[in-house]
Design brief:
Elements (H helix, E strand, L loop, with lengths): L2 H9 L2 E10 L16 H13 L6 E2 L8 E12 L4 H11 L4 E9 L11 E9 L14 E2 L6 H9 L3 E4 L14 E12 L2 E8 L6 H13 L5 H9 L15 E7 L2 H4 L38
Parallel strand pairs: 3-10, 5-6
Antiparallel strand pairs: 1-3, 1-4, 2-3, 5-9, 5-10, 7-8, 8-9
């Protein structure tokens, strides 16, 4: 091992750590920090700042709305190098509130960004059809519809979604400067113990997009509107409106995907990270520019 390598390892003061977070979104006003309200980012940031001994920002892979849950939210934080991933994970879980849990912590390259490096995100939506879905032990994490629907129509509607197209009809608000096109890789309904669950994987999402898709598909499956409406909305027909969005409590961010090279720390090639400026506390300000012109969206679903 060269002396240069030893010096780079021994003198670096900070490391970048990636966190995989679970949270029950019921008592949060979404992910992003906001003044005077409880948010996931705000709670994590308070604990991280305490452990770092200085104000420290936490960056997320995307924003989830009030009431939306996660079992695969990804965040990153720069911490003093005395922290190992295992020790940091243990300390976070000891101090975080009970509705947030850190599944994993690991070191990643210094320039890793959970938002801009993401290739795809998967959301799931649980629709409760059995009476038990109204139980207080289930209703916080599903839409307890508890009525019969036409499963074949539900599947036909979902089969229309995959592909690359404009999803402007299924957005509460968009980002005109970034466009409305999304590439949906998969969109399927499967069985769930108390009903059915919808899973969708895409490179980006528009605001409330998944909830509008689910709300419209459910109305089709209830016989309240024809399947042709789903086709027309996906084709961008101006005279059609979506059904109301499905409730937030049934939605969960399940997984964020990254290329392998974005997650592999190259310690030998790092300069001393403490010489680089820390990203600001506001997540909306970029740490680095998008790698490609169609950088991934993080607008909450």
């Amino acid at each position: 091992m060269s002396l240069v390598y030893l010096s780079a390892v021994e003198t670096r003061e900070k490391i970048r750590l990636q966190l995989t977070l679970h949270y029950d979104g019921s008592a949060f006003h979404g992910w992003q920090s906001q003044p005077d309200v409880r948010t996931v980012q705000g709670e994590v940031q308070k604990v991280v700042t305490r452990l770092a001994g200085m104000p420290t920002s936490v960056l997320g892979s995307g924003r989830t709305d009030s009431g939306v849950h996660a079992t695969g939210q990804v965040a990153s934080v720069a911490m003093p190098s005395r922290w190992t991933p295992t020790a940091f994970q243990r300390a976070l879980n000891a101090l975080l509130p009970a509705d947030i849990w850190v599944e994993r912590a690991r070191e990643v390259p210094w320039d890793f960004h959970p938002r801009y490096d993401a290739r795809a995100r998967t959301y799931r939506y649980r629709l409760g059809l059995a009476p038990q879905a109204r139980s207080p032990f289930h209703r916080r994490w599903c839409w307890p519809l508890t009525e019969r629907i036409d499963r074949k129509l539900l599947d036909r509607a979902a089969a229309l979604i995959p592909g690359e197209r404009s999803f402007r009809s299924f957005a509460k608000s968009g980002q005109p400067e970034r466009g409305y096109r999304c590439h949906v890789r998969t969109a399927v309904w499967d069985e769930w113990a108390l009903g059915v669950v919808f899973r969708i994987t895409a490179d980006r999402y528009l605001h409330h997009m998944v909830r509008y898709l689910v709300g419209t598909m459910v109305e089709v499956a209830r016989g309240r509107r024809p399947i042709s409406d789903m086709e027309g909305l996906l084709a961008g027909q101006a005279k059609l409106d979506t059904s109301p969005p499905a409730p937030a409590r049934g939605l969960c961010l399940e997984r964020v995907e990254y290329p392998a090279e974005a997650l592999r720390p190259e310690v030998a090639e790092r300069s001393e990270p403490s010489l680089r400026p820390e990203p600001p506390l506001q997540e909306t300000q970029r740490v680095k520019p998008p790698k490609t012109p169609d950088a991934r969206s993080t607008t909450s679903r």
